[in-house]
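Students often ask why inverse folding is considered easier than folding. One informal answer: many sequences map to the same fold, so there is more than one right answer. In these notes we will look at a single instance of the problem. The structure comes first.
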């Protein structure tokens, strides 16, 4: 099953619907989703991820600036290209809306199609890489997991979180925090290379949150155990000797009072489809967050595997 790249068209008059439908009609990689500017209509459609959002400005009932502000409130990390069609060339000069480009009408279908493909290629690359670890990010994680669910393939979703990472960052600063993230990134790659398969997926949600999508249940625990073993064995390299000897660091809380925090550790939660069937990524993520929250309640490095059939 091919995962289609989604493009949204906002049009209150339907004049652009047929034109863009024709532009992408024969391209099996692209799905065109159409909506009016009405908030209730948009709210339902904006649950999707989009590479490009086209707005038919000429027939728009809503104020363009307000509409774009509403769109941005839903975009988060996705940041699609936003383009507005207009027949009034003076509009392009007189209206300035941050983040919006204007396209004069009439349009050339072939040109629009090629421009869309180029934009999708660029955004696909940008969405897939985390700036700190250079690992695949949120979008690629979701697409990879969704593909496995749709194909019915085996998977183990492994969530890795560094405990007490924020106080560590507050105490040692961003440089040392970045060094720690780099260490964990390398550790994940080595553990997967040693115990996993070449097709396993390594992703970085952001901050201290990482994800693995493993292709088999058989070696998942071995990967997790190796990660914890090597992390605990080497984490002392990221502390000053006096802090190690004391066994904790002291960081001011929001009340201006000093709190003590022990050495950082790892919480790992695993969710698989070995005993359960999942129909969406949301179902997997919800299950994973329950396991992660349980793991965070246990002191020290820990790995919890959700094998429940319920």
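Output (designed amino acids):
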């Amino acid at each position: 099953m091919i995962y289609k790249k989604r493009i949204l068209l906002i049009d209150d008059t339907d004049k652009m619907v047929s034109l863009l439908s024709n532009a992408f009609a024969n391209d099996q990689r692209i799905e065109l989703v159409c909506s009016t500017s009405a908030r209730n209509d948009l709210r339902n459609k904006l649950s999707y991820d989009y590479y490009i959002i086209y707005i038919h400005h000429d027939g728009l009932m809503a104020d363009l600036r307000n509409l774009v502000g509403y769109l941005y409130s839903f975009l988060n990390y996705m940041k699609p290209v936003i383009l507005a069609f207009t027949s009034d060339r003076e509009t392009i000069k007189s209206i300035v809306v941050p983040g919006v480009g204007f396209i004069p009408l009439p349009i050339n279908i072939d040109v629009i199609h090629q421009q869309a493909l180029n934009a999708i290629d660029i955004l696909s690359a940008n969405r897939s890489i985390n700036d700190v670890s250079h690992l695949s990010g949120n979008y690629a994680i979701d697409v990879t997991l969704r593909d496995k669910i749709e194909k019915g393939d085996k998977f183990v979703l492994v969530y890795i979180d560094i405990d007490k990472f924020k106080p560590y960052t507050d105490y040692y600063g961003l440089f040392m925090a970045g060094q720690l993230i780099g260490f964990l990134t390398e550790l994940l790659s080595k553990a997967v290379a040693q115990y996993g398969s070449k097709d396993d997926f390594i992703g970085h949600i952001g901050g201290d949150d990482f994800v693995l999508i493993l292709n088999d249940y058989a070696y998942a625990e071995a990967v997790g155990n190796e990660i914890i073993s090597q992390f605990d064995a080497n984490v002392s390299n990221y502390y000053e000797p006096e802090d190690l000897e004391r066994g904790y660091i002291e960081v001011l809380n929001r009340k201006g009072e000093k709190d003590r925090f022990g050495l950082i550790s790892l919480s790992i939660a695993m969710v698989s489809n070995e005993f359960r069937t999942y129909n969406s990524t949301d179902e997997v993520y919800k299950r994973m967050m329950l396991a992660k929250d349980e793991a965070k309640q246990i002191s020290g490095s820990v790995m919890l595997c959700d094998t429940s059939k319920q």
